[in-house]
Protein 1
Amino acid sequence: MRTTVVLVALAASALAAPAPKPAPQDINFSDVLSDFAPFVDDQPTGPEYNATTETIPATSPNHSEIVDNVKADPATPGKLRRRDILKRTQGDCRPQPANRGPQFFGEPADWIAQVQAQCPPNNPDTLGTYTKVFDGLLGSVNQMGYLGLTTIHSYDINDCKARCDAKPGCLGFNLYVERDPSLDPGAGCPDPAPITNYKCTLWGFPFEAGAADNRGQTRYQFKVVIAASVAYVKPPPCSNLPDFDLYGSGLYGAINAPSLPADSYPAYQTNTYMGFKQYPTDDVRLNYYDPSICTAACDAQTAYNERHPPGLSSSNPTCAFKVCNCINSYVLIKNGKAQGMICSFYSYTWDNSYAVNGGSADGTVKVASSCTFSNNRLPRQLTIDTCAAPI
C-alpha cells in the first residue's frame, strides 16, 4: 500500500488545538502526475469531429463504488486510460446542418481574419461569478470533464453562460467560431464550401489557456479551423455535506500540513496525513468536480483502517488507527489542462492558512478549486486504540 509522502501537504481547518507553525514541505507533483495514466477510454475530452450538438450527462459514482475502490486500493491513486477525441473518416458528401447565424467565407486564413475582426477579444473579464480564462484564441478546449456541445446562432457569451448555469456539474464554458464543411467531405466533394458554426462547449473541471489546443483538423481536403475562442470558469460549488462541514472554499492552493508538535501529541498522532485518492479511475467514473466523493472516500478510509489496525509497537503502544477527520479536495492542472480531482485525507483539521501550495515552481502544474471539509461527528478523535497499552 503506497501511502508515502507524495502529497504530505494538504487540508484546512483548526478546530481542536492551536495550529502549529508550518514546516516547509512540497507536494511531489511529478510523482502524483506519473500515476495519472491518460483518460478513461469511453470518457470524451471534447466534441466528436462532426458534432453540432452533444449532451453528456454529469457522471458521478455511487457510494458503493467509492467504498469498493478504497477497499481495493486504499489511499493510493487509481489508473485511467485516454480516449482520442477526433476520429477522422471519409465522408459521403451528405449536406451538413446549416447555421442561421452570420456566415464568413473564404480560405482558412481569410476566414479567420474575418471572424477575428467581427468578434474581437474584448469580452468582459468577469461574467457574474465567472472569470475569463482566455479570449481570441484559435483553438477550443480539449480536456477531461467534457459535458456537451450546443451549436448556437450567434457569438453570444451570455447564451453559452446560461447553458453552463443550467447544466449540473458545469464549472466552465468555451464559446468559439468554427469553419466547418457544408458537405461531409469525401472523394466526391474533397473541399466543399465552408459554413460558419458558433459552438458552446461545457466543462466539469476548471482549465486554463493551455487547454485550448484543439485547432481543428483536415477532413479529406477541407480544413476545419477555429477562431475567436473565449472561455470562462467559475469557483467550485463547495458547501456543507452530510457529516462534513465546509471549512474553506476557493482556496489559494492545497494544504501544506506540518507534523503536530511532539510535546503535545503522542508520536503516532503527530503525522496527520492519511494518503490521497485521485478521481476518476476505471472503477470510479467522474466527469465533474464533486467533493462529496472525497468525503465518502474519507469515511471508507477510516473503515479500512479500523479493519486493518497497525500492530503493537514502541511508537504505537495502543495499536491506534487514524480517523479521517478532514479532506482537501482540489483539481490538478498541468499545462492548462485538468488532470483529475485529488482527495487528501487527514486525521487533524488544519486551518485554511495552510492552503499555500499553489503548484510546481516552474508553473506547469497548478492547484485549482481547492476546498476543505471537516468531519462534524462527535466525539472527534485523531486515532482510536485497538489494543491495551502494556503496563
Protein 2
Amino acid sequence: MSVGRQGSAPNACSVWVRRGAAACLLAVVAACTSTGDYLGDVAARPDALDKVANADLSARKPSGGGFLSRLGFGRTQNNRQGEVYYGYQQQLTAGERKSLERLSGEKFEVNLEEAEIKVAARTVLGEVLGISYSLDPRIAGKVSITTSKPTPAAEILTMFESALHSSGVAMMRESDRLRLIPANEAFGAAQLDPGTTIQPGYAVTVFPLKNVSASTILPLLENFVARPGMVREDPSRNALIFQGTAAERTAAIEAARSFDQDWLADQSVGIFPVNNSSAATMMPELTRVLDIGEGGRGRNTIRVEPIERSNAILVVAKTRNQLQRAASWIERLDRIDASASNLRVYKVQHLEPRRLASMVNEIFNGAPASSASEDPASQFPPGSQADGQNQGANGSQAATATPDQRMADSLPAPAGETDQPIPGGGGSQSGVRIAANPENNTILIYGRPDQQRLIEQAITALDRPQEQVAIEATIAEVTLTNELRYGVQFFLKSNDIGVGGNHGSVGLFQEASKAVLSRTLPGFNLLLGPDTEPRVVIDALRGVTEVKVLSSPSVVVLDNKPALLQVGDEIPIVTRTAQSVTDPEAPVVNNVEFRDTGVILKVLPRITGNGTISLVIEQEISSVQRSQAQSLTPTISQRKVSSTVSVTSGQTVMLGGLISERQQRGRDGVPVLGDLPVIGDAFRSNQNSATRTELIILIRPQVMKDGMDAQHVAEEMRSQLRLMNEPSRNVPLRRPAKTMIE
C-alpha cells in the first residue's frame, strides 16, 4: 500500500458542482492549500448537464410567412418583460461546507492491494482525507484501490465508497463524520441528503419532477438504471426518492433528469379555426390524410384534437414543416357541406334587388310570371293615355323630360315582389328561399351550396349594367303647299328628290342613303340615313314651305324603361253634374276631371342583342277649340299616332301622315255700303281659304353602352347648342340641296 501526495500552488484548485433540481455529484479536481477556492470555481466550469439545465426549452410559435402567417400565426407580438420566479434552493450546512473544504486541498496517488478494511479506512479517510469516521466492529474484509496518477481527494473518496460497497460495507454520513456499517443495515439507517449536491456516502435523495409524472418515469428507471428497491415514488409531491451510494444516486438522477423534459419544448403548436365546416366532422378526414390513426406512420409526430367550443383544430407537431402541412390540409378540407343548407349574401351591382330577386324566384321556385299585352300602347300607364283622364288642380304650362309617378305602372310588376323573404315553392329548387334587402342593395339566398351556386350564376348573368338610350325627338308641323299636296313623305320619296333644281325639290340624302328611303313601315313611317339628323330634314322642308317646330326635347332613358315628353296644359272637363230633385234651391255639384293636352310623346326603347333599338312610340297633339275655350265641356281636337319601329343606333325615324285641314272664311268691304241689299256685293268681297298641315315626328335614338358613348352624345348635343346660337340661314325656294347642306 502506498499513498503519494502531490501539492499544488494555492488557489489552483477547482471544483464543479451540478446544481438545480437534480442531485449533484461532487468531485475534487485540484489539491489546494486554500479551501476557500474550492467553492469559488463552482460556476466557472459548467458541464453539459449545466447547459441542458439552463437551456431555454420553452415552446416557440412558428415564425415566418407563408400559409401560417395568413392564418394569423407567427405574427409579431409586443415585446414584454418576462418575470422569473426561482424555487427555494437549500444551502449547504456548516458541517457539509467544512467537509468540502477538507476535500479541496491536494491530489493523491493511492495503491492499496488486498488491504484490510480497517487499515484502508484509516489510510484513506483518516490520513489522506482527514475525515472523522467510525467503524462497526463487525466489519471484516479486504479492499483494493489503485490510482495511476495523482487524483483529487473527492474522487478518491468516491472510489473508496465503491470498493466498500462491493465488500458489503456501506458508508453512512452523520453530520460532519462518516460511519461504516454493514450494507444490509444501511437500508433503514440511511439519512436524507438535503443538499443540492450529491454527498459521498449511502444516503437518500429526493428528486422532484417538473414535467413528467413520477409514475411514468419509475418503471423506466427500475428496468434500465436502478437496482430493485432503490427508487420509490412520492405521488403527492410528484417526486422520486433514491436510496443508495453517491454513484448509484448520481446515475439514477441523471437518468431521471433526461426523462423529465418539457414535451412541448420541441413541439410546434397551432390552433386553426374551421370556418365552413365542423371541426369534429373534419377530424376523421384529417386523420386519414396525415396517416396519424392507429398504426399510422405519422402517429407519433403529429397530434390533432378538435376544439368544439371554438370550432377549431389543435395541432401539435414535431417540426414546423409538419405543422404547415397540417394547416394546409385543414384549409383544403374546410369546405361547405354540400348537403347542408346555409345562408349567403349576394351584393347586387346594377339592378334593383327586389326586381332581380323576383325574377330569380320565378325561375327556381316556380312562381307564376305576369304577362303583358301585345298592344304597344299597353306599355304606358292608363293615366297618361290620350283618352284617359287625370285628377288635378289647376291647368298649367309644364315641360317634363322624365317619367312621372304614373309611369311606374308602365311595366308589369314582377311576381312575388315583396319586402318579406320569398319561401321556396314546389319547383325544381324546392327549399330555396330568396329575399331582397333594398337598404344595402343585397340579395339573401338560403339553400344548399349547389343550389346557391346555380342561383348565383343566374344572378351574375342578370346583374349586368343597364344600357341607356339617348332620344332626340323633333315634333314639327309642316304647312302643305302645292308642292307638298300629297304629304311630306310622298314628297321625300317622289322622283323630285335629287340634287338639282327641278320643280323646286330639295335633295336630302347621299347615294348611300337612297336605298334606306325605299324601306317603309306600317303607319307611314320612314327610315332616314344614319348620317341624317332631324335638323337637316327640318331645314330642307323649311326651304320649300313653312315649318313650325312644336317641340324638340332630348332625354336619356334606361333600356326598357318608358320616357314621357310632355308640353301642354291640363284642361278641366265636367264629367258629371248632380243636383237635388227635392230642393229646387240646392246647388249644382259638378265632378271635374283634368285632361292633358298639348304635345305628348311617349317612347319605350328596347335594345336588342344585335344592337338595334326597338321603339314603341305614341305621339299626340291635342288642343281645345277656340270657340269652346271657356266651356266646361270643351271639344278637344287631337292628332295621334302609335307605332313600333326598329332602328339602328344613330338612325333617324320619321313618323308622318297626320294631316289636318283648317277652313277660314272672311269678308271684306266698304262699311255700310257693303251691307246694302242687291248692290252690296259690289262693295264687298268674300274670302274662303283652307290651310292643310301635316304633323311629322323625327326620332333619333343612340345607344350609350359606357362612359365614352355618353361623352360622345354630350359633345354632340353641345355642338347643337352652338348651332342654335348661330343666325339661321334662309334657304331660298328651289335651291338645290347640294348648296344647302354645305
Protein 3
Amino acid sequence: MQTLNRRADVGTRRGICHPAGRRSERGILLIECLVYLGVVLVVIGAALAAFYSALDYSKRLRNNAEDITRALRVGEQWRADVRSAAGSIRLEKGHGGVALCIPSGDQEVAYVFSTNQIVRIKSKDGLSESLLTGIKRCSFHQDACGSVTAWRWELEFAGVMKAVRETPAFTFIAVPGSAKKQ
C-alpha cells in the first residue's frame, strides 16, 4: 500500500494527477484557438476594408483637387485670350461640338468642346493642346449689358462616383479688349 501512495505522490508532483483544489495551470483548447483566430481575422478584414475605402476616397479627393486647379488655370487662360481679342469673337456649332473662336493679332485661338474634352487650337501654328478632360457640359454665352458685351464660359465636370453631392461646375466671365457691343 505504501508503494502505491508514493507513486501517487510522485505523480501529483509531476502534474500528472490534479486534485480538484490544486490546479494552477490551464490550457487552451483547439476550438478556442480557432474561435480566437476567426475573431482576429474578422477584425483584420474589417480594418483592411476601411483602409482601402479611405485610400480610394483620398485618391478621388486628390483627383478632384487637381481637376479644380486645372480648370481655374484654363479659365484664367481663356479670360486672358478674350481680353486680348483683336476682333469680333464668334461661336461656331458643328457636328463634333462647340467652338469659340477668338481672333488676336495675326492668329486665331479656338476653344473647342467635343467628346467630353476641351481643346485649345492656335490657327497660326496649328498647335492643339488638350486642356481639360472628363467634362460633362460646356457652353459659351454672349451677354450684352448696355454698351458692354461680355462672354461667359460654363463648364461642369462629369462625376466619377454614383452618389455625389455636387459635381464641380465653373463659370468664367470676360470682357473683350474693345469692351464695345459686338
Protein 4
Amino acid sequence: MPPITDQQASVVALFVESVCYGIYLVTLGLSLRTLLWVKHGEGMKPWSQVNHLMLAVCLIMPITATINLALNVVRAVESVGPSGISEQFKDLGSDTEVTKFFCVNFQTLVADFMLTYRCWVIYNRSWLMAVVPSLLWFGVFSASTLNLVVLRQTHDESLTAAKALRPIITSFWATSIALNIFTTSLIVWRLYRAEKGLAVASLSRISDSSRGRRGRDSWVSKVMRIIIESGVLYTSVAISTCITYVTGSQGVYVTSAIEMQTVGIAFNMIIIRVALADSTGYTQKTTKDTIPLQIVARQHTTDLEISVTKNTHTDHDELESTLARKRSETMTESNV
C-alpha cells in the first residue's frame, strides 16, 4: 500500500477536526451556562458576579477554532479547482496557510497563558512561583512569532518538508509541552499540600459520626483530579503533534487538527467539572475554619474556602447534659 499523501491526510484531518469541533461546541455551551447562570436554573448571574476573564477566553477561543475549520473547508473546495491541491500544500506562505498557523499558535498561547495565570493565582499571586511558567510562555510566544515570519517567506515547500520551519515549530511544541507539564505539576502539588494540611488539622476533631465520610473524596482532591486529567488530555495531543511533525509524517495534519479543538475542550471541561464538583460536594451545618487558597476556577471570586468540620454538636449535647445534671443537684440541695 502506498504511503498516505498530504492531500489524503488533509481530507482525514478535515473530518476529524469537524467531529472535535462539534464536541467543542457542546462543551462551550455548558461552559457559558456555568459562567453566566446561577446554579439550579435560578436565572442569570449579576454581571458583577461573572468571572470576566474566563468569559472572555471562552468567547475568544471559538473564533479562532471556527476560522481554522473554515479555512480547511475552503482548501478542500479549492482542491477541485484548476490549480489542484498539490500546489496549495507547497505554498505555505499564502494568506490561507499563514492564517491557519496563526489560529493554531494563538489558541495555544491563550491556553498556556491561562494555565500560567492559574498557577500564579493558586499560589496567592506569588510572582516568584510564576517566573518559570512565564519564561516558558514567552518562549512559546517568541517561537510562534518567528514561525509566522519564516512561514511567510516559504512558498516552494510542503509543511512536512520545509527545513527552515522544522527547528522553529519543534521548539514551539517542545516549549509548550514543557510549560504544561511543569505548571500543571506546580498546581497539583499546591492542592496536594493544602489537602494534606487540612487532613492533619481536622484529624483530632472528627467525631465518630463523621468518620464514615472520610472515605469520600474532598473537593480539593476532585479539583486535583480534574486538573490532572485535563492536563493529560491536552499534553498527550500536543506530544502527538510534535512527534508526527518531527518525524515528517503526514499524520501531523490530523494531530494538529485535533490539537486545535482539544485546547478549547480541555479549557471548558475544567470550568464545567469544577462547577459540578462544587455543586455535588457535601456540606455540613457545623462550625468551620477556612484556609485561604487561590484558584481561578471558582465563580467570580478567586478565594477558595476549604471547610474543616469541627462537629461541635456532640460537645454541645454533652454540655447541655452536664448543665442539666448540675441544676438538678442544686435544686435537690436547696430542698434539703
